[in-house]
């Protein structure tokens, strides 16, 4: 049957439109996904991601070939975040505080002394606060999966003296991650913060570029910082977690069933990881003591009082805005 010129043109345009409108990854096709992580393969978050990726491969009969690369193999946090946004890598685990540079609200969950216990953490992160953070990330092309991994409450380690009172932080050279929240926090506490990436931290402690650092016990153990630090002060000055994030365009091009499989596997692994990390952050104190780390527990109230007096909370309330701050205080109680 012959087509006239108008019919041919309409048919061709229709076919092209169908191609452009189709998902980038068709249902049933081979999918290759690369996921980056910052911590050693022994860290609970790395183990959880390895388990989730293995489950996804198995459940899809290896049609979804998703591979996890721990220990900053794909670059520093900042480098991986840039790659995820550009599409050079598909996914990564990322601290909300570290993502503050591209989506300011992402760091609000790391506000100092915001959550008194894990019950409040999960109410917030699985509730309205987590939803607000994910919405903010979506605006800059980052898709965050619903459940956040637990990194734990952060504590201070030092090589020269324990932190028995807030005065012990004065002038101390403290390593902090490259993020405005951390820098402003330890500046307000009187320390001298220096931003150093996690993959350079051990050598910075070993060569005394800095005297101390702050991290959850799981990271102190997996990073072997007890080898180059003497004291650990349980300050629990902030809680931090790791979002599993993806390039927005890439993840939204997946078929609905494939995205559902990936989401379910990540959620199952995350729930298990939360329980394991909470247990480890208690049990690790004994094993780290056996490795020579000396522990103490300073009064946390003095740190909060100094932060309030220094205007730390008032400044961050203004930066985040009253609406976001109200969502945070729904779970934390009044901070400023």
Automatic annotation (TrEMBL):
Its GO CC terms are: outer membrane-bounded periplasmic space
Keyword annotations for this protein, in alphabetical order, are: Receptor, Signal, Transport
Listed InterPro entries:
DctP_fam, TRAP_DctP, TRAP_DctP_sf
Which family is it part of? Belongs to the bacterial solute-binding protein 7 family.
Q: What is its main location?
A: other
Q: Which domain of life is it from?
A: Bacteria
The protein's matches in CDD domains, at most eight in alphabetical order, are given as:
PBP2_TRAP_Siap_TeaA_like
Signal sequence: where?
1-26
Official protein name in the record: Tripartite ATP-independent transporter solute receptor, DctP family
- Report the record's Gene Ontology biological process terms: transmembrane transport
Compartmental location:
Cell envelope
Query: What Pfam families would the database entry show?
Result: DctP
Which species?
Bradyrhizobium erythrophlei
């Amino acid at each position: 049957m012959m087509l006239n010129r108008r019919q041919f043109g309409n048919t061709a345009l229709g076919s092209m439109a169908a191609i452009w409108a189709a998902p980038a990854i068709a249902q049933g096709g081979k999918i290759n996904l690369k996921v980056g992580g910052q911590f050693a393969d022994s860290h609970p978050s790395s183990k959880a991601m390895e388990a989730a990726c293995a489950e996804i491969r198995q459940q899809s009969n290896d049609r979804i070939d998703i591979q996890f690369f721990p220990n900053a193999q794909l670059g520093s946090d900042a480098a991986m975040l840039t790659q995820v946004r550009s599409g050079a890598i598909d996914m990564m685990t990322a601290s909300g505080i570290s993502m503050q540079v591209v989506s300011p609200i992402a760091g609000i969950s790391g506000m100092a002394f915001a959550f008194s216990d894990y019950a409040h953490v999960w109410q917030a992160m699985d509730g309205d606060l987590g939803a607000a953070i994910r919405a903010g990330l979506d605006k800059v092309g980052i898709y965050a999966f619903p459940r956040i991994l637990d990194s734990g409450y952060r504590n201070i380690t030092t090589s020269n003296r324990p932190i028995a009172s807030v005065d012990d932080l004065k002038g101390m050279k403290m390593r902090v991650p490259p993020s405005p929240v951390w820098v402003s926090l330890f500046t307000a506490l009187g320390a001298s913060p220096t931003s150093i990436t996690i993959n350079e931290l051990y050598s910075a402690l070993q060569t005394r570029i800095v005297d101390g650092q702050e991290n959850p016990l799981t990271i102190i153990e997996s990073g072997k910082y007890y080898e180059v630090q003497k004291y650990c002060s349980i300050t629990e000055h902030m809680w931090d977690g790791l979002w599993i994030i993806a390039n927005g365009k890439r993840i939204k091009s997946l078929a609905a069933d494939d995205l559902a499989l990936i989401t379910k596997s990540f959620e199952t692994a995350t729930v298990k990881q939360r329980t394991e990390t909470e247990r480890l952050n208690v049990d690790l104190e004994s094993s780290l003591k056996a490795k020579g780390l000396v522990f103490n527990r300073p009064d946390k109230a003095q740190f909060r009082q100094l932060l309030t007096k220094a205007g730390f909370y008032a400044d961050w309330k203004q930066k985040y805005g009253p609406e976001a701050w109200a969502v945070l205080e729904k779970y934390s109680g009044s901070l400023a």
